[in-house]
Amino acid sequence: MYSGPVAANAYFSLAQDGKPDTVVILGPNHTGYGNPLSAMREGAWQTPLGDVQIDSEVADDIAEEVGIVDFDEVAHRHEHSIEVQLPFLQYLFGNAFKFVPLCFLIQDLETATEVGRGLAEVLANRNAIVIASSDFTHYESQAQVKKKDKDALQALEALDEKKFYDVLEAENVSACGYAPIAALMTYAKALGAKKAELLSHRTSGDITGDMSSVVGYASVVIKKFS
Asked: How many domains does the chain have?
């Protein structure tokens, strides 16, 4: 109920762009289970809207291109950051797409850029999109969250991964999936993107009315030749 209306802005934009064959979803590992960078290569994920099949061919190609990616379903067993994106995609496209989940336990900049470059190599000639799933600043006042998130989002809009990490460190921005975001930035630039567009930025306080301790959410779209 907090992040859904914000995320819907990106999915509206995606709906206008057309149906992808494959969706690679990058998310943080909140649980600590599994390998440092974990994908899955077979099977399906089930939501109340049905089953979504994993794209085994793309998963294999990613693992081959990015040597630090392992196949490990344990990392995904209790993790929510990737699965929460699937119902949006199913609402738009039914189950007529496949996906690859990639869960980040390690989130340094070098790892993020390596993944982004690898995704660009694998997906360049495919009808595919990449989604990064993350909250932004957690459990601070509305004013603090707005300020911190604004600075981080400005770096994201400029597709500047180094500045993004610098802002996170300098301002102690507690975004949970910063490496997935940076990997997406690297991937997008490799395919010709010049900037990102902020569609929506809100907080849990906008829903509850309690501005003393909120979580920030943002919806950003990056197009290949924007």
From this structure: 1
What is the maximal distance between C-alpha atoms in the chain?
A: 48
Q: Is 213 helix (H, G, I), strand (E, B) or coil?
A: coil
Under DSSP, is residue 111 helix (H, G, I), strand (E, B) or coil? helix
What CATH number is given to the structural domain containing 55?
Answer: 3.40.830.10
What does the pLDDT read at residue 225? Answer: 65
Q: How far is CA 121 from the centre of its chain?
A: 18
Predicted confidence (pLDDT) at residue 226 exceeds the cutoff of 90: no
At 224, the pLDDT band (50, 70, 90 cuts) reads: confident
pTM beyond 0.90: the answer is: yes
Structure tokens at 110: 């070098």
Domain that holds residue 211: 4-222
3-state secondary structure of 31: coil
Instruction: Please give the Cα distance from 183 to 116 (Å, whole number).
Output: 4
Q: Tell me, what DSSP letter sits at residue 214?
A: B
Tens-digit pLDDT profile for residues 68-99: 999 999 999 999 999 999 999 999 999 999 99
How many DSSP H helices and E strands does the chain contain? 8, 9
Distance, in Å, from the CA atom of 224 to the CA atom of 192, rounded to the nearest integer, reads 5
The pLDDT assigned to 184 comes to 98
Once rounded to an integer, what is the mean pLDDT over residues 109-124? 98
φ, ψ (nearest 5 deg) of residue 163? -65, -40
- The angle that helices 142-157 and 161-171 make with each other, rounded to 10 degrees, is 160
Burial of residue 222, with CB atoms counted within 10 A of its CB: 0-12 exposed, 13-18 middle, 19 or more buried: buried
**8: closest CA among 226, 208, 222, 221?**
221
